[in-house]
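fyi for ur records
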Amino acid sequence: MSLIYNLVQLLRPKHYLKNFLVFLPLLFSGQLLTAGYVVNALYAFFAFCMAASVVYVVNDIADRKRDAQHPLKKNRPIASGRVSLTQAIILLVVVVGLCVTALLALQPSVYAVALLVGYVAMNIAYSFGLKNVPILDVAILSLGFVMRVYFGGEAIGVEVSSWLYLAILAFSFYLGLGKRRNELIAHGSRTRAVNRFYSKDFLDKNMYVFLGLTVMYYSLWAIDPAQQHKAVVWTVPLVMVIVMTYSLAIENESSDGDPVEVLTHNKALLSLAALYGVLMLGLVYV
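which gave:
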């Protein structure tokens, strides 16, 4: 494998899929066809991708010795020795520079910069110890999704609906708890120390509390009198089907519970997500 390939793998580009949440405020604002809004959203997306990669590189540098003993993580670029510590540090400096460059082009508000810096700081703190604190570990993962949406809203000057915020927060908790559930089933606490505090029953019960809250909050967003696009209420049944399909995938114990892996390896879920995107575009823009 070439060095370039391993450096790219160190950035974990497949996880950039999560950063498409940055585009949600643009999609729902009705400004998707306005060039200035789109350009700013693209800068915001790139900046968040680079910020996320900063976290991944720092995490892999810090955990390189521990990862080398892990049955799966031992294959990561630094842990396996395919990328040296010096090369990883140089890459980290380059990625920070790209993130700052994107921010300078975006010229975001102070609040937007604070969100991005807060995201990086929060996740580095997670990597250096908070990942071992039960409940807080899942809360940090969940807040990361919400911060993406708010950063996208700030980038284009669009306010995020309170109901939409609550829906995304609830669904994020559901995803985080589902990931812990399947890790616990597959590996116990051998690969993640915090799992010794959890039980399958606890995770199952709380997962479905947050799943119910997700559908409720999304429905309230769809019927909110302040909602500019009244027809989005027709997406509620599809959202119900999507979350049930995701639950079915999670219940399959062969899944590791990682949201990106679940989505990218489930054709039905990918098709439903694409259908939701097309339907939402039609309801908001036609």
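DSSP finds twelve helices and no strands in the chain. thats all i got for now
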